[in-house]
């Protein structure tokens, strides 16, 4: 099955300098006036406008005229107003590196080979690539890469991660909305994805004794549970372990436990029960003939 790789379009490791326009820019000229050109060099990739928002444009430095003037290799297509941010980046693309899984541990750096190079989507929080042959048989790393100067960030700058063998239970946007972060453009998708993975792992571990995991197709209630748990984890991550966040996390885990302990039963979209467990349920509740004790005080092991 395919694995979707998500990379933050603008990670701090790829940011070289920050400046702003010192004058309005009318589309067509090759000259850009900045507050300061300090740290900006020939061949540098610039993004003019608010990162990850509509209207941001990529430019490449042809020459640095003086302390406030740069010349571009190509003119920008849109007008930009004074004080708009100008961000100098090392790379204009992301490189996806892949290595085969051998024993469940991260492969040596030399085992990773370039799988593809994707241009950064400057008006999006993340840049995506779908590996059509990806799965847990592979590990991935990514770097930021300059297609003109061939500069590249270190391969080891980010932790390697293993491919997925199942489709995610919920989208990042659904989790953002549930957590109240749908308009938080400064919140990286990687942070949301981290909590989604944590939620999926916790759900799979909790329900593996009763249901076949990972779920495919994903029942609606599993999607809901994932959204609730991931959103609660995200709020704890963002705001700390407050009483309100603690309660949301407790409620989400209680809902999962209800399916784990048999108080509720998962069904597919047609209403058919999904339980595959033949084990007895001796808890919660008092033991009886249908749900005897698992252990007795006299048992010896």
Structural overview:
The chain has 301 residues and is an alpha+beta fold. The chain folds into 2 domains: 1-165, Thrombin, subunit H (Beta Barrel); 166-301. The protein contains 4 helices and 12 strands; from the N terminus they run ββββββββββββαααα. The protein has helices at 172-179, 189-207, 220-239, 243-260, and strands at residues 3-8, 15-20, 31-33, 45-48, 57-64, 69-72, 85-89, 93-100, 113-119, 126-131, 138-145, 161-162. The strands form 3 sheets. It has a 6-stranded antiparallel sheet, with no helix packed on it. Strands 9-8-11-12 form a 4-stranded antiparallel sheet, with no helix packed on it. A two-stranded antiparallel sheet has the order 1-10. β5 (57-64) and β6 (69-72) form a beta hairpin. α3 (220-239) runs antiparallel to α4 (243-260). The two termini are 44 Å apart.
Brief sketch in words of this structure:
The protein has helices spanning 172-179, 189-207, 220-239, 243-260; strands at 3-8, 15-20, 31-33, 45-48, 57-64, 69-72, 85-89, 93-100, 113-119, 126-131, 138-145, 161-162.
- Quick one: CATH class of the largest domain? Mainly Beta
Helix- and strand-based class? Answer: alpha+beta
Number of strands: 12
Please name the CATH architecture of the largest domain.
Answer: Beta Barrel
CATH topology of the largest domain: Thrombin, subunit H
Write the layout of secondary structure elements.
Blueprint: E1 3-8, E2 15-20, E3 31-33, E4 45-48, E5 57-64, E6 69-72, E7 85-89, E8 93-100, E9 113-119, E10 126-131, E11 138-145, E12 161-162, H1 172-179, H2 189-207, H3 220-239, H4 243-260
Antiparallel strand pairs: 1-10, 2-7, 3-6, 4-5, 4-7, 5-6, 8-9, 8-11, 11-12
Helix pairs in contact: 1-3, 2-3, 3-4
């Amino acid at each position: 099955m395919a694995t979707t790789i998500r990379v933050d379009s603008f990670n701090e490791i790829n940011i070289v300098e920050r400046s702003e326009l010192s004058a309005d820019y009318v589309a067509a000229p090759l000259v850009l006036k900045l507050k300061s050109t300090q740290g900006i060099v020939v061949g540098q990739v610039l993004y003019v406008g608010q990162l990850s928002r509509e209207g941001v444009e990529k430019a490449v430095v042809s020459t640095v005229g003086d302390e406030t003037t740069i010349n571009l290799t190509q003119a920008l297509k849109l007008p930009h107003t004074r004080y708009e941010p100008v961000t100098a980046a090392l790379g204009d693309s992301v490189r996806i590196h892949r290595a085969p899984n051998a024993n469940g541990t991260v492969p040596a750096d030399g085992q990773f080979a370039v799988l593809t190079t994707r241009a950064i989507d400057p008006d999006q929080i993340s840049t995506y690539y779908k590996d059509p042959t990806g799965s847990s048989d592979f590990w991935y790393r990514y770097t930021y890469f300059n297609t003109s100067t061939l500069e590249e960030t270190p391969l080891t700058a980010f932790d390697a991660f293993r491919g997925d063998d199942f489709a995610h239970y919920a989208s990042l946007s659904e989790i953002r909305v549930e957590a109240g972060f749908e308009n938080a453009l400064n919140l990286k998708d990687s942070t949301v994805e981290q909590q989604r993975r944590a939620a999926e792992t916790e759900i799979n571990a909790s329900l593996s004794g009763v249901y076949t995991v990972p779920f495919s197709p994903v029942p609606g209630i599993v999607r809901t549970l994932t959204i609730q748990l991931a959103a609660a984890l995200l709020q704890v991550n963002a705001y700390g372990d407050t009483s309100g966040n603690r309660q949301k996390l407790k409620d989400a885990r209680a809902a999962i436990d209800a399916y784990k302990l048999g108080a509720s039963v998962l069904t597919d979209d047609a209403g058919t029960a999904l339980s595959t467990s033949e084990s007895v349920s001796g808890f919660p509740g008092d033991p009886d003939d249908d749900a005897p004790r698992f252990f007795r005080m006299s048992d010896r092991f």
